[in-house]
Amino acid sequence: MKRPIRHAGMAVVAATLLLTTAACGSNNGASTSTTAQATATPDTSSAAVGNVVDVAISAGSFTVLAQLLTATGLVETLSGPGPFTVFAPTDAAFEAVAAGQEISLDEMVKGLIANPKLLTDMLLYHVVSGNIPAAEVVTLNGKDVETLSGEKWTVIVAGEKVSIEDGFGRMVNVIDVDVSASNGVIHVIDSVLDGALPDFDGNDQEAAPTTSEFRNYDETFDGSTSKNIVEDLAAAGNFTALIEMLTAGGQIETLSGPGPFTVFAPTDAAFESVAAELGIPLEDLLSEVIANPEMLVYTNTHHVVSGKLSAAELAGMNGQKLETLAGVDVTVIVDGEKISLKDGRGRIANVIDANVAASNGVIHVLDNVLA
User: What distances in angstroms separate CA 74 from CA 11, 55, 59, 127, one per listed residue?
Assistant: First the structure.
């Protein structure tokens, strides 16, 4: 199966969460606890016979799915005549995804709901037109099935085990089948399928995940005390993504002001690295972060500290915390001549160029993006 590079439902959501986990609660820190009490294999045998939404709700093991369907308005769609075949992730499935991102289930749900168009496509990636019982599903081994999102996944049958291979090649298992509804059928799955990015061109499957036209950060620059921080970043030519985000978030004016500020600036290559981790183009990563203003402002201000801190000062702060303009701390780590920052999720960003002069502060260049 060819991997559709821009399949990115959970991936792009993961990106926004990766960059902005604490945006919804920066003063309290990100919780990594999970609270759902669903079992991995729910008892659907006693579910009342209604439409697919009614049946899912009555089962009691799909509360997250029901919440997301409600948020997108898809409850009405899936309460219609159909018929529909729904491959329904359990609450435990959503919890597993949240745990993998080291965030709470509530934080993940907020991140999903904050991207309504993306979330709608992701949910529709779990729905197929028609009433397809398990006996028919097992005859589809190796075949691509088109979902209501317009994207496809592949059925894999191995003995009595039925799985779905999604756009990232992830295997999601069917753990219960043929849950009857008045307008279709539900098959229960143990994970969340990675859905399609809105407006994805299905013919664009041979593209590389990142096709950077940015310059690699392969030499230092000194900056200029006659230029402010924003002007310095623009002149360097290696911070195009950061400038785009600062512009969209409204921080250009702030960082052009008197300050002083210390800016820890991720290079374009740093943003590309995050996009590559998720298997999506950088432009899609930026689009999704920019589409959520709260997350965008958090990400931008998480890289700025009030006052002017030189590399020499940072070198004397090993283990100490710096409060960023986002209201959350990063920890300074010094190892010999190497200075790094550790964010609240344990991600490490190394300072690869320091003491870049500016009229209103100083820039230290990072090789990673703080979350």
Answer: 21, 15, 18, 11
Question: What pLDDT score does 213 carry?
Answer: 44
Q: What's the CA gap between 214 and 155, in Å, rounded?
A: 39
Residue 61, amino acid: S
Burial category of 194 from C-beta neighbours within 10 Å (exposed 0-12, middle 13-18, buried 19 and up): buried
In the chain, the DSSP E strands lie at 84-89, 127-129, 144-146, 152-158, 161-165, 171-181, 184-189, 223-224, 261-266, 304-306, 321-323, 329-335, 338-342, 348-358, 361-366
* Residue 207 CB coordination number (10 Å): 12
Per-domain boundaries in the chain: 9-189, 223-366
| Angstrom distances, CA of residue 298 to CA of 77, 245, 250 | 35, 11, 12
Average pLDDT value over all residues in the chain: 78
Answer whether 9-189 and 223-366 agree in fold: yes
**Strand partners for 321:** 331
pLDDT surpassing 70 at residue 18: no
Task: Provide the CATH topology of domain 9-189.
Answer: FAS1 domain (2.30.180)
Class of domain 223-366: mainly beta
Pairwise CA distance, residues 117 & 313, whole Å: 45
Whether the upstream peptide bond of residue 260 has omega within 30° of 0, thus cis, is: yes
Q: For residue range 286-305, what is the model confidence (pLDDT) as tens digits?
A: 888 888 888 888 889 999 99
Give the whole-angstrom CA distance, residue 369 versus residue 296.
13
Q: Give tens-digit pLDDT for 174-224.
A: 998 888 888 989 999 988 887 544 443 333 333 333 333 444 555 566 667
pLDDT at residue 211, as a whole number? 38
Q: What is the pTM of this model?
A: 0.54
Rounded-to-integer distance, Cα 276 and Cα 50, Å? 43
pLDDT digits (tens, 9 = 90+) for 34-93: 333 333 444 444 444 688 888 888 888 888 998 899 888 888 888 888 899 999 999 998
Distances (CA, A) of 162 to 40, 43, 157, 241, 351: 16, 19, 5, 42, 48
| Separation of alpha carbons 325 and 265, rounded Å | 14
